[in-house]
Amino acid sequence: MVPCRQLFRALLAALVTASAHGQGGATCTAAINEYFLAPASGSFYGAAQAVNLSGYTRLRLVQDGSPNSSGTWVSAPIASNITEFTATFRFSFRNSVGGPGDGFSFLWGNLSNASGTRMSGGENGVQAFVQDQSGLSVGFASYPGAGANGVNGKWAGGTSFAFVPFTYTPVTWTTTALAANTIKMATATVFWSRSTGTRVTIAVPGNTG
């Protein structure tokens, strides 16, 4: 298996790009682009589905007004030994009463076993990683209160290695039309390298960095 640097893109919205050094010093670069048009690639679990929202095709992980629900989308497997990756995706929240939901997480790891409740999760990661004590999760914790709003990085299912406060008010909307509009979404970028670790950036609407 040739090591590869991977780039992935999905539209919640996201871009994974990758490359790596293979035999003879060669570099392998691969990209996955997912816009959730029919038929969308990957697998959907729980409440997650590709939907048309006010004329926009989007990945909806959970629906507003549905408490105690969760949804997960898993991309097609990547058959490479990854040395680094960059994942870029857009996101927003729709809440008819004006406050964001509990949040969501970006996941990187082995999710081939989808039995039972392993695919359930949210801003704290996914049950599969907790059970296996593996994987990287970057949680976007948007629920207001107690200073818990922010971005939380976890290794091995639950070991937190970083937390940075962040407010999601600029990307929380009260109507579907606003929440589904690309220009109303934030753009998140998750970079991971075997040599340098994890870096996360969020650009809110109207900003470039």
Write the layout of secondary structure elements.
Blueprint: E1 3-11, E2 14-21, E3 27-34, E4 43-46, E5 49-53, E6 56-60, E7 71-74, E8 81-91, E9 93-94, E10 104-108, E11 121-122, E12 125-126, H1 127-132, E13 136-141, E14 150-155, E15 159-165, E16 172-173, H2 176-180, E17 186-193, E18 197-203
Parallel strand pairs: 1-8, 9-16
Antiparallel strand pairs: 1-2, 2-3, 2-8, 4-7, 5-6, 8-17, 10-13, 11-12, 13-14, 14-15, 17-18
From the structure above, extract its key features.
2 helices; six-stranded mixed beta sheet; mainly beta; four-stranded antiparallel beta sheet; Jelly Rolls; 209 residues; disordered N terminus
What does this protein look like?
This protein has 209 residues and is mostly beta strands. Helix content is 5%, strand content 48%. It has a single domain, classed as Jelly Rolls, CATH 2.60.120. A hairpin with a 3-residue loop joins strand 14 and strand 15.
